[in-house]
């Protein structure tokens, strides 16, 4: 072989080997850096400690480009430094302590004594060891600018610092770690109505609340909140830290009181909550017991607990749904009518009358309905425009009686906005009214048993927004006068009709996939409601169930309202309160009621302010502008219309012109086709043309 060639081949071989070695080196280095784990002589051990090992690459890929919703707490250490050795057991304990929360916070460590880890240590200006820094989740804007130094080496203080940091930067997906400012802040939280609510009252420097919230974050169906001592002493809560449960009927009960020892209180509260959830679940399973069958209020309590299960149609009447139904029906469905007169006005009066008598909501709302009733009764004219109706409703809003202008679906919330909501709340309202009428008729000469059903029919006929629904309902309720002779019958009549609708709509596109329309009540809610073979309803049991189901949810009739009720209804009201187990709890609920009321009053005040603004001089100027603009637009419109009119004066309309164009195009195409057929073809086949000519010649 030519020596020159040989040399060049050797050179290229050597170069190849060198390149291979280089690649291998890089691969080895990369593997060394990316393979996670502490070395044998390190301060931490991958096998026994919960500290997450980091190096330059994993620091970049896992801390800097962290998964969302994760807080990193990193110790920058030097394996040779004595302080670090001394501190290592503390860091290990911390990591072990937080090992249940690794989906929220990671305790990690990086050895800055290793040259390959130089970059991150330099980048974060680590000048002494150990240095501990906390990195907010990626959702935080300018996240790396908000990295915080832990200034202590004491374990309890580090824990507190981390908890405070977690509270400050908690992403939306985490449970709430901040204390509630006001009790009503609860209702702004997500999925509140589908959960059992627990609340921890504690001192400002206490960490128990946060720890319990974090410990129970993955337990479904419960929510734990915290409130500070200074916010709740006025409500008569005197022991701190203490754990309370909010019952479905809006009462609260004390579950535990701590002794200010962080770990034992934490354990106690977590345990008590878990036990309580277990008991509630066990109760819901024993719903078919004999005792419950005889005691509708027991069924009600249990159904309240069951209603936490969002997958089934087990939700019971809820104050929030009922008030939202009222708001929408009065301020939208009735107000949308141009004129309310004749039969329609009669229907409205009947509707308001039964609401005034049987709506089981809060005192101000009930008083508001009484005011509406008075307004309608004293109406001087035989008709009312929709606008007048709205103005009247607005003017009736006052501090002592009002209807909140808010829609907040609770049990009626669908899996997406197009499902459930208003129609669901109207069914709930209607059932609640029939049950309310039944409750008030107890122990007295029953009033008109059909009164509520006729009012519902009137509402469906004249106001319900869905035309098809009202048509069907009117068909279904044709025989109501003869079919219903008692309040019990009325409750069952509506139940049967509702089930007919459920049957018809099962599989319909309006059916919420998460709340399929089943025959109600399903076995899971009321196992005793059907015969043992599951074929027939036991209507007595169904009735008892419905009474429990639709008279609960913390809805009670306040004593101050009695004077507005008809005749001697005091007994009936008492029995209603007793039947829902609230007769002696009205006082206890008072502060809660007040809180709710204050919130609504704020809304009323805002409404007034808005109204005042509407009437202010600025508004007048704005209106002038608007009307000027409107007249300009109107003028332009008139000019356009005039032009159209001129055109039509010639007898040629736009349609005529379009037809002309179409015919013109069609005739052009036909001429072109004919031209192609006769002329072009002759040019292409001159012989055939000549032949034809000679033959013909
Ligand atoms: C009077 C009326 C008639 C309607 N007619 C039609 C119609 O013809 N066509 C149409 O498309 N939509 C109709 N709708 C709407 C439809 O019935 C539902 O309200 C809507 O589809 C929402 O359904 P939902 O799953 O929330 O449960 P809904 O049927 O609204 O029920 C609400 C809640 O009531 C309880 N419940 C269910 N069944 C019963 C029962 N038999 N007795 C007592 N409580 C029960 C359950 O807790 C349920 O969650 C009507 C609504 C009303 C108020």
Report on this model:
With 697 residues, this protein is α/β, with parallel strands linked by helices. It folds into five domains: 52-169, Glutaredoxin (3-Layer(aba) Sandwich), CATH 3.40.30.10; 183-288, Glutaredoxin (3-Layer(aba) Sandwich), CATH 3.40.30; 319-604, Four Helix Bundle (Hemerythrin (Met), subunit A) (Up-down Bundle); 616-651; 654-696. The protein has 25 helices and eleven strands. The chain has helices spanning 3-34, 56-64, 82-97, 118-123, 155-169, 208-215, 229-232, 262-285, 290-294, 296-306, 319-334, 342-358, 363-377, 386-396, 422-441, 451-462, 467-476, 480-483, 487-505, 539-550, 570-579, 586-615, 617-649, 654-684, 686-696, and strands at residues 52-54, 71-77, 105-111, 131-135, 148-150, 196-202, 222-228, 242-246, 252-257, 339-341, 383-385. It has a five-stranded mixed β-sheet with strand order 1-3-2-4-5. A four-stranded mixed β-sheet has the order 7-6-8-9. α8 (262-285) packs across α10 (296-306) and α10 crosses α20. It is extended and about 95 Å long. Residues 313, 315, 412, 420, 423-424, 426-428, 431, 460, 468-469, 472-473, 495, 498-499, 501-502, 505, 510, 512, 515, 517, 520 line the site of flavin-adenine dinucleotide (FAD). GO terms for molecular function: flavin-dependent sulfhydryl oxidase activity; protein disulfide isomerase activity. Keywords: Disulfide bond, FAD, Flavoprotein, Glycoprotein, Membrane, Oxidoreductase, Signal, Transmembrane, Transmembrane helix.
């Amino acid at each position: 072989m030519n020596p020159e060639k040989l040399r060049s081949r050797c050179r290229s071989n050597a170069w190849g080997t060198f390149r291979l070695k280089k690649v291998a080196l890089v691969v080895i280095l990369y593997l060394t850096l990316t393979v996670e784990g502490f070395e044998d002589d390190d301060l931490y051990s991958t096998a026994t400690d919960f500290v997450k090992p980091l190096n330059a690459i994993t620091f970049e890929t896992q801390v800097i480009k962290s998964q969302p919703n994760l807080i990193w707490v990193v110790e920058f250490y030097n394996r040779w430094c004595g302080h670090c050795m001394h501190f290592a057991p503390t860091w290990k304990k911390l990591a072990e302590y937080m090992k249940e929360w690794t989906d929220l916070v990671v305790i990690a460590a990086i050895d800055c004594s290793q040259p390959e880890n130089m970059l991150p240590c330099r980048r974060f200006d680590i000048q002494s060891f150990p240095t501990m820094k906390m990195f907010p989740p990626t959702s935080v804007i300018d996240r790396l600018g908000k990295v915080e130094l832990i200034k202590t080496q004491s374990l309890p203080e580090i824990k507190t610092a981390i908890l405070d940091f977690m509270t400050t930067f908690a992403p939306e997906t985490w449970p709430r770690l901040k204390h509630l400012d006001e009790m009503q802040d609860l209702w702004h939280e997500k999925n509140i109505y589908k959960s059992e609510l627990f609340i921890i009252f504690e001192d400002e420097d206490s960490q128990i609340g946060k720890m319990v919230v974090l410990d129970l974050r993955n337990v479904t169906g419960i929510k734990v909140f915290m409130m500070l001592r200074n916010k709740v002493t006025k409500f008569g809560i005197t022991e701190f830290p203490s754990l309370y449960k909010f019952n479905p009927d809006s009462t609260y009960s004390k579950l535990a009181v701590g002794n200010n020892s962080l770990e034992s209180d934490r354990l106690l509260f977590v345990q008590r909550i878990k036990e309580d959830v277990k008991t509630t679940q066990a109760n819901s399973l024993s719903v078919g017991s004999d005792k419950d069958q005889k005691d509708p209020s027991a069924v009600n309590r249990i159904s309240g607990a069951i209603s936490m299960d969002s997958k089934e149609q087990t939700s019971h009447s809820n104050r929030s749904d009922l008030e939202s139904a009222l708001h929408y029906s009065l301020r939208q469905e009735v107000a949308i009518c141009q004129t309310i007169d004749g039969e329609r006005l009669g229907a409205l009066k009947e509707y308001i009358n039964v609401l005034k008598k049987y709506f089981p909501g809060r005192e101000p709302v009930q008083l508001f309905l009484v005011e509406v009733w008075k307004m309608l009764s004293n109406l001087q004219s035989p008709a009312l425009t929709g606008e007048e109706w709205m103005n009247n409703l607005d003017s009736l809003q006052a501090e002592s009686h009002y209807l909140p202008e808010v829609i907040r679906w609770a049990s009626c919330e669908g899996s997406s906005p197009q499902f459930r909501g208003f129609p669901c709340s109207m069914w709930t309202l209607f059932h609640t009214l029939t049950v309310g009428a039944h409750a008030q008729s107890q122990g007295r000469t029953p009033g008109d048993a059909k009164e509520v059903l006729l009012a519902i029919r009137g509402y469906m006929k004249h106001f319900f927004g869905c035309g098809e629904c009202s048509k069907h309902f009117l068909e279904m309720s044709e025989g109501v006068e003869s079919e219903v002779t008692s309040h019990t019958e009325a409750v069952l009549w509506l139940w049967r009709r509702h089930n007919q609708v459920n049957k018809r709509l099962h599989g319909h596109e309006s059916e919420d996939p998460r709340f399929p329309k089943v025959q109600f009540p399903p076995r899971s809610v009321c196992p005793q409601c059907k015969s043992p073979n599951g074929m027939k309803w036991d209507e007595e049991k169904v009735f008892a169930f419905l009474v429990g189901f639709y008279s609960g949810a913390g809805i009670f009739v306040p004593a101050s309202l009695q004077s507005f009720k008809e005749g001697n209804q005091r007994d009936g009201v008492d029995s209603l309160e007793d039947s829902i187990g609230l007769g002696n709890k009205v006082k206890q609920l008072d502060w809660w009621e007040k809180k709710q009321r204050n919130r609504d009053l704020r809304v009323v005040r805002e409404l007034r302010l808005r109204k005042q603004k509407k009437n202010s001089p600025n508004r007048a100027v704005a209106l002038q502008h608007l009307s000027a603009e409107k007249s300009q637009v109107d003028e332009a419109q008139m000019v356009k219309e005039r032009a159209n009119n001129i055109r039509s004066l010639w007898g040629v309309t736009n349609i005529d012109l379009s037809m002309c164009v179409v015919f013109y195009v069609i005739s052009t195409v036909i001429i072109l086709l004919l031209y192609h057929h006769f002329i072009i073809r002759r040019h292409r086949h001159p012989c055939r043309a000549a032949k034809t000519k000679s033959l013909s010649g």
